[in-house]
Amino acid sequence: MIHHYTSVETLALILKYGKIRFNRLDLVDDVSELEGIAQFFSTHIFVSCWTEEAEESIPLWKMYTPNMAGVKISFPKNLFKRKFVPAFNEANYGSNQDYWGPLSKEETFTDNYIIMNLFDKPNSFYKKIVYRNDYPEIYKSFFVADEKGYHVKNTFDLGLYKKTQWEFQQESRFTLLAHPLLPLDHPLVNHSKFKQMELVNYCMSYGIGNSVEYIDVEIDSDKLQNIIVTTGPLCSHSNEIIVESLLKIYAPNGTAKRSALKGIIRK
User: Fold this and answer.
1) pLDDT in tens, 198-244
2) CA 103, CA 217: separation in Å to the nearest integer?
3) Superkingdom of the source (predicted)?
């Protein structure tokens, strides 16, 4: 199982829409994560942050739920809906084989970006954070430039590292690598989808980042229906009622329980 600390309001949105939001890496709380990553490239990486630690964490309650009154949601690691993507070719950025992943073809190849993850590769979609302080130098070695433009190697290891000061989080995360595309009405594209795909490296070479700040990914309905929700140590009785009501409406098979820290932390 994996666990995510959040607010009751966010829980309501997750249950109603059945999706998890991936936020852009340059907008997360650890500013130092960007060290060693080319400045614009931080807008290519979208993350959803979790932990495999089942025991409740007071720091995570404090940092990621309002006044320790939010919730911890728990799912199996394969919580996302599996979608079939048939082989196709669009300017060599399509897939040459069928595969299953958490995004459909339409969600993977949009007018604004293309998702480059290969979901069956290690560290491509789900990864456990490695805590070490020298990772900026590791990241810098990933970025190379030649006569054809700007290139990135080891792309699936981007977003893998954090400084040791954050080790208390014991974080695991899902990542999406979304390369931005020039608008279809851009003079270089001239409304050609083929040309838009062909110019992916142009965007990387000239530091064109993503304007979108998040990507929502659909949860498997069976997993959503069996969600486990732990209310926070300082969660009010009224919020506990709200959580129970949300589950009754959207996930009748879900489980609500109180924090094991309830009553031992003073407001």
Assistant:
1) 777 777 777 788 889 999 999 999 999 999 999 999 999 999 999 99
2) 7
3) Bacteria
